Amino acid sequence: MQKKQSEKRPPDRAAASAAGSALGRFLGGYAARGPVRFHMPGHKGARFFRELGYGELLGELPDLDITEIPGADNLFHQEEGGVLREMSEQYRRIYGVRASFPLVNGSSCGLEAAIYYAARQIRPVFLTARNCHKAVFNGLEMAGAKTSWVYPEVLPEGISGPLTPEEAERGFREVPEAAALIVTSPNYYGIRSDIRRLAETAHRRGAILIVDQAHGAHQVLFDRVEGSRYAAENCGADIVIDSTHKTMASFTQTALVNLNGDRVDPDVFGNVLEKFESSSPSYLMMLSLAVNGEITEHRGEGLVRRWAGDLDWFLPRAKRIPGLRVLEHPMLDRTKIDLDMSRRGLNGQQLAVELERREIVCEMASGNFVMCLSGIGNERRDYERLLRALEEIAAAGKAGGTNGNAAGFVPGFFRLEQRDIPTQCEWVALDRAAGRVCGRQVTPYPPGIPAVCPGEVMTEAALEAVRGCLERGEEVMGIRRDPAENGGWTVYCGMK
Q1: What does the domain layout of the chain look like in residue ranges?
Q2: Has the keyword Lyase been applied to this entry (predicted)?
Q3: Sequence-separated (6 or more) residues with CB below 8 Å from residue 395
Q4: Could you check whether the bond before residue 450 is cis, i.e. omega within 30 degrees of 0?
Q5: Is CATH 3.90.105.10 correct for 425-494?
Q6: Is this prediction's pTM over 0.85?
Q7: Contact 235, 29 (CB under 8 A)
Q8: Of 85, 123, 226, 295, which residue is least crowded by CB atoms under 10 Å?
Q9: CATH class, range 83-296
Q10: Tens digit of pLDDT for each residue in 245-276?
Q11: CA distance from start to end of the chain
């Protein structure tokens, strides 16, 4: 039920900054600054909820933090007519699927459950797009599954492009026993694959299609409003994982698993999913999913029309800014705004810093690109401020440009040799790791796509790309500085 707009003054943000803990001070300070948010989550802050009449609810959250008391239903044993069953049914209607499962452990647990299900119910053999998120590789390892890579195209900008049906078909010819094809669409930069043709390819081979649509929870609404057909739920995918928190209005760490068709048994899948979710699911997270469902079902199409209109206002104007390149591609989800100011001498990290100086915080900087993640909560004034900032930065920049890979490290570009994941490992200096088998994911974050996976043989070219990420100030997980190496970077490798 929608809450009425509170008549009370919104809580003093400064109070949060005085909460005492370092995290409380940071979060309170960030909220008090009031920056333009082109990063997750999609709601972009309290303003969105207050404008839609949920302001009073925000102030009541501590009182709404409960457990499975009578009447509260149970996420893993939903009652007929129960409040959580009602929410699941609402999402089933919104996405037009056979079954929808709310998640409080993020899309990561949905991906891991999907892989575990396919490994146990079909076969522990997979084809996996090499640009998948690290959660996919974690899931494969936990399921004890074997995988062979299929490789998305690499665009001229140095960004992972679509996974083509021809490449998927090549994978199935080499691994005809594969139980499932796992793809990411859209990817972090917003590039989509042709899910309909990939589903046809997988089904023709007797496999299911698992789609990590974490960055595309909004696509089903855009399909409805614009008459397109990009949402994996509309294109024949069997298991689709949507991060509603990334672009829609639920809180961080909430997501959905949507099941399509008759190739996946909802009862068996639900039992598998319970193994990967917390046994104490947060009712505050589930409440945010319920609010998002209500907003999406009853007001979503209008909000998406506003969102699409703002993008259609912003993008052509941004493309006219001298020295700024805005990524374009036929399969681009335009809610991801990829900006390259290298013609004005700025790489992605430098452009992100310039934007933050103007109180605009973006989702990711990698290589020469900054990715601004728009969401359902952004308003026209956000895009106006971004446009003015880009005009200022471009005018103050220098002609010439930077060198190097526009997007930093492109996963799978080097097509590294695969071996068994080593069980005995040691830390080795990066400059001595070529030829060694990787024992732990080496992952630029964001976007969270492993540059080198466990079991892959590291080459000098791949290691040089990792060093390039570090030199640009990008965060790389899975490596560490070692005093024994004079503070140099080391990587976890199989023993010789």
Answers
A1: 83-296, 305-396, 425-494
A2: yes
A3: none
A4: no
A5: yes
A6: yes
A7: no
A8: 226
A9: alpha beta
A10: 999 999 999 999 999 999 999 999 999 999 99
A11: 62
